[in-house]
Amino acid sequence: MQGNIVLCGFMGSGKTSIGRRLARLLDREFIDLDQYIEEKAGMTVSQIFEKEGEAGFRRREAQAAAEVAPGDGRVIASGGGTVLYPKNVELFHQGGSVILYLDVPLAALQERLKNDKRRPLLQVPDRRQVIARLYRQRCPLYRAAADRIIDAGAPAIVVAKRIAALWQPGQGAAPGGKMS
Ligand code: S3P
Hints:
Blueprint lengths: L4 E4 L6 H12 L2 E4 H9 L3 H24 L5 E4 L8 H9 L3 E6 L2 H7 L14 H19 L2 E4 L4 H11 L14
Parallel strand pairs: 1-3, 1-4, 2-3, 4-5
Helix pairs in contact: 1-7, 2-3, 3-4
This protein binds shikimate-3-phosphate.
C-alpha cells in the first residue's frame, strides 16, 4: 500500500499542474478533483455554482473526496476549498493519503489569478482584496490539514521534481512532521 499523495493549497498554487507532473515522475495515476466532479456532474464548476450554489458544489466535492480517498497510489489535486472541511481531511487520512500543502506567497497568487475567468469565487470586482481575505482565512487551515508544507513558488516542474525526490527510497516521505 503506497497511499495517495493529495495536493492542497490556494487557487492558483499549482495543484493541477504540479500534480500532473508529479504523477508522471512517480508513474502514478493522476486525479484532478474538480475535473472528476465536472465529469460526474456533466457540468463545469462554474455551472454547478450557478445552478446549485456553493453549498451544492461542496456536497459534490465531499462525495468526490469520499470516492477517491480509498484508492491507492494516486496523485490527487484537490480543489482550493477541499481540505477546509475536516470531514474531507479525515477521509483522505483514513485512506492512507499524505497531504501536501503547496505554499505560495499571496502576492504571487494575486498576480497569477488577476485575469482568471473560470473560478466562480473570483468573479468579483475587488478581486485582490477577496484573494487576500480568503488567503488569510485559509492558510492556517491548509497548514493544519497538511502532513508536509512545500514551498511552491517555483515553476511547476521544479516543485514536482522536489516533491518526487521525497518519494525516493530512504527519503522518508510518508506522513510525519510538518516540514517545509
Ligand atoms: C475553489 C477552488 C477551485 C474549485 C472551486 C472552489 C475554492 O479549485 O474547486 O472553484 O474554494 O478555493 P482550484 O483551487 O483548483 O482553482
